[in-house]
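A favour, since you know our C-alpha cells better than I do. Would you make up a two-line entry for one protein for me to read? Write everything out right here, beneath this request.
=====
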Amino acid sequence: MSSFNRGVSKVEVTLKWDPSPMGRPAHDLDLIAATYTADAPGTPAYLVHFGSRSPDGTITLDRESRTGQGFGSDEEMTLELDRLGADYRRVIVGVAIQQQNGRRTFGDIANTSVRLAEGYTELSEHDFAEVAAATAATFAEFTREAGGTWQFRPGVRGFDTDPQSFGALMGGG
C-alpha cells in the first residue's frame, strides 16, 4: 500500500445509489474512466465504461448495476495505475446518468455517493450534492509525475450532457 507522498498504485472506486420508487423507471448510473497520453492531453486514448475494460486490463469495471438495487455498492471499478503503460499520463474518473426515461440529475436520485480507496485507505468520498443539477460529473484525476508515480487529485466537476458525449468532455478545461 502506498502513501500520498509515494503516490497511488491500485485504486478501487465504488458507486452506490438508491433504487427508483416503486412503479417509476429505474435509475441507471455508469462509472467511466478516461485515459490520456502526453501527446493528446484533452482527447481520451480510450474509455472504460458500461462493462468494458482497458485494452491492457489495467482498468476494469468489475460490477455494474442498472437499477441501484442490492446491498453495498452498485458499481465497482479497479484502476491498476502502476501497471498502466508509460505513454499514459492522466486518468479521469466520472459518473454519468443514463437518460433513456427522461432527464435526471444527481438531485433526482437518492443517496448517490462514490468512494475511492487504495487498500484500506480512503482517498475520497463524494455525494454529488455540490453538482445536484448535473447529469454527469468527474470526481477524480490521477496524473503521472516525472518520476513515474501517480498522484491523486480529488474534485467534483458537474456537466449537463448525455453519457455518449460525456467521454469527450471529461478531460477538458
